[in-house]
Amino acid sequence: MTDQTVLKIEQDDSNHPRKALIDNIKICEERRIDLSIVEEIFEKEGVDVIHRWSSLTAAAASCGDDAASNITEKVDKLLTNHILYDDKLIMIFDRLLDGESDEFNNAFSEVYSVDDAFEDSEYIADSSYDVGNDVSIYCFQIIREISERKELTESDLGELASVLDKYNRVIGYRPVKVTCYDAVIVDTKNNRVILQLDLGSIVLANAVDKFFHKLITSINKAFDVAGVTSCRLPEKVQYENLYNAIQKFYDNDEGEVTSASFSTSKNNHHETLRDRARDIRKAEYHLRGKAAEEALGGKIRPYRISKRFERVTNKWPQVYAGIHYRYFNKPGLKSLYEAHIFDIKSYKDYSFIIDKILANR
Q1: Which helix (H) or strand (E) holds 290?
Q2: What top-level branch of life does the organism fall under (predicted)?
């Protein structure tokens, strides 16, 4: 397998550093990377910008070649880490037998060597990447269509611009195609396989099962085309059930809860951080409600929760786990196979948050 430190990010064929930088900025915007993060890279190189994507592209077009090359290198690293680790919907299979992870690596090597392995699929075998000696990441490119929200201007409205005389704002939605990099991570040290959907923040909840099923079936079919008979990606119900993690994330003191939807004896509630609170569970507005609920003999029962953990100083990877309240209120055993991870800046952040998820399952 080839160790590729930079993914195949589509760009114009140009060696000019300013052109490459503009291409990278457009990809950052498409992937919904926090504008302030890219902005900070420019400012550290002495390039002043205002808080708009258009300002970044204008600065990229006019800055010197040396500054552009330095910024491009940093933005390229940001993009690679974002494509590999950040804003992912994940499912974890944590029970591979000894030797099975090596079989998966061999299987993916076969798939990447066969040109038509994904001939009848929407996926393209894009890139593979080794993290040390124990972890291999296999990325598969797919184009997804999402609805983009936009405040419409007079130019957008054309002959209908007069409606702006009646309304302060007019909001429109349009279909936008986004390049995504779904992936499979094989961890030989921990006998683990992780499936991930790229850009989890834009995947609609009712499409998650469909997208994971497509990824699993497409790869298993590619194994067949490549002549691989030794392994298959498991079906969804064989992955780790993370349902109990929702309550445990709330109950366990470690980390900070940044948002939660929960049920009490009287109603359902949703809370996010406000004022200067860093952990909902310690905020006065939450403590008052919790005390009132416990006085009635009840407890806080979350069905959706986001929690961050501090890996090192000022590095706070986050995880979201949740289900719909109607499913939550149904009797019987429940399951949740996926979680959303975000604010992940490196593989160390990624590995750290995976361990926190598994420790709370």
Answers
A1: helix 284-295
A2: Bacteria
Q: Which domain holds residue 114?
A: 88-238
User: Tokens representing 166?
Assistant: 């009646």
**Amino acid of residue 226:** A
Q: Same domain, yes or no, for 182 and 109?
A: yes
Tell me how far apart the alpha carbons of residues 320 and 249 are, in angstroms, rounded to a whole number.
10
CA separation for the pair 66, 351 (Å, rounded): 35
| Of the residues 238, 273, 299, the one at which a domain ends | 238
Separation of alpha carbons 104 and 188, rounded Å: 10
Q: Is there a contact between 219 and 202 (Cβ–Cβ < 8 Å)?
A: no
179 with 303, same domain: the answer is no
pLDDT for 20: 82
Which residues 6+ apart lie within 8 Å of 84 measured at CB? 7, 129, 137, 139, 181, 183, 347, 350
List the 124-131 sheet strands across, edge first. 124-131, 135-151, 171-187, 192-197, 88-93, 339-342, 318-322, 301-308, 256-263, 268-272
pLDDT at 149: 79
What are the C-alpha distances in Å from 156 to residues 24, 153, 161, 170, 171? 26, 5, 8, 10, 11
In the chain (361 residues long), the average pLDDT of successive 10-residue segments reads 44 60 92 94 92 91 87 94 98 94 96 93 95 95 87 85 86 90 97 97 93 97 96 95 98 97 92 93 93 92 98 96 95 97 97 98 94
State whether 233 and 125 are in the same domain. yes
